[in-house]
């Protein structure tokens, strides 16, 4: 599976990709910090952007000087940092996602199948922590289609970049699809029908992270 402009790119991603991913994710979170908090203010506590900005800034500061030689090593640093610095539900959810991902990425490189495996177990961690399903208006609505998109690329013999690019596009669409939904989990669920008409902030930040992961692969 190839797309024009992607055929000359490596078929795998490595530790340098993981570092670029966190650097780009941090920059994107900082850029969209106010927007994410505004989304959260509409249906939650209003601190999602601030919490993630603090957590990813700390994670990036820990990751860049890291001498880890595997992607797993980088993801473990991110997981522990997010768990200790991000407040609210986002810290445990993202921390668990990165920690689960670290367990299946103890390699120098990841191909498309590896990308799918990382995303799949990350989603599993989020579901285990948040007890949410697709359609509940949570970050699961971004991660689930991302996993499916990455699986399709892997099955078609595509590259890691193609898997990440497809996952990012699917996550963005999934985040947008949360707007008309009524929240069934988390603080937003307290609003009932009034939660409809607003994008879920966790789904929005998930889409940002996956887009950063894809961009990091494209820049490698």
Concise summary:
This protein has helices spanning 15-31, 33-43, 48-63, 71-85, 90-103, 112-130, 140-155, 160-176, 201-218; strands at 13-14, 109-110. The chain has 220 residues and is an all-alpha fold.
Describe this structure in words.
The protein is an all-alpha fold and 220 residues long. The protein is built from nine helices and two strands. It has helices at 15-31, 33-43, 48-63, 71-85, 90-103, 112-130, 140-155, 160-176, 201-218, and strands spanning 13-14, 109-110. Helix 5 (90-103) runs antiparallel to helix 6 (112-130). Mean pLDDT is 94; it is low at 1-7.
Compile the SSE list and pairings:
Layout: E1 13-14, H1 15-31, H2 33-43, H3 48-63, H4 71-85, H5 90-103, E2 109-110, H6 112-130, H7 140-155, H8 160-176, H9 201-218
Antiparallel strand pairs: 1-2
Looking at this protein, list some descriptive labels.
220 residues, mainly alpha, two-stranded antiparallel sheet, 9 helices, 65% helix, 2% strand, globular, disordered N terminus
Q: Tell me the structural class.
A: mainly alpha
- What's the N-to-C terminus distance? 19 Å
How does the overall form come out from the CA principal axes? globular
Poorly predicted parts: 1-7
Sequence of secondary-structure elements: EHHHHHEHHHH
Q: What is the total tally of β strands? A: 2
């Amino acid at each position: 599976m190839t797309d024009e402009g992607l055929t000359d790119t490596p078929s795998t991603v490595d530790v340098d990709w993981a570092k670029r991913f966190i650097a780009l994710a941090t920059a994107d979170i900082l850029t969209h910090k106010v927007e994410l908090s505004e989304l959260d203010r509409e249906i939650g506590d209003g601190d999602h952007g601030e919490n993630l900005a603090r957590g990813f800034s700390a994670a990036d500061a820990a990751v860049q000087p890291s001498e880890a030689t595997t992607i797993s090593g980088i993801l473990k640093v991110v997981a522990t940092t997010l768990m200790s610095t991000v407040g609210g539900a986002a810290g445990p959810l993202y921390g668990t996602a990165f920690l689960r991902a670290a367990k299946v990425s103890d390699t120098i490189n990841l191909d498309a199948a590896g990308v799918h495996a990382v995303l799949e177990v990350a989603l599993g961690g989020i579901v285990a922590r948040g007890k949410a399903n697709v359609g509940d208006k949570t970050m699961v609505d971004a991660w689930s289609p991302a996993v499916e998109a990455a699986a399709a690329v892997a099955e078609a013999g595509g590259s890691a970049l193609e898997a990440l690019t497809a996952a990012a596009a699917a996550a963005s669409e999934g985040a947008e699809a949360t707007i008309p939904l009524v929240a069934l989990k988390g603080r937003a669920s307290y609003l009932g029908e009034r939660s409809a008409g607003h994008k879920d902030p966790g789904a929005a930040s998930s889409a940002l992270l996956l887009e950063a992961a894809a961009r990091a692969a494209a820049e490698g």
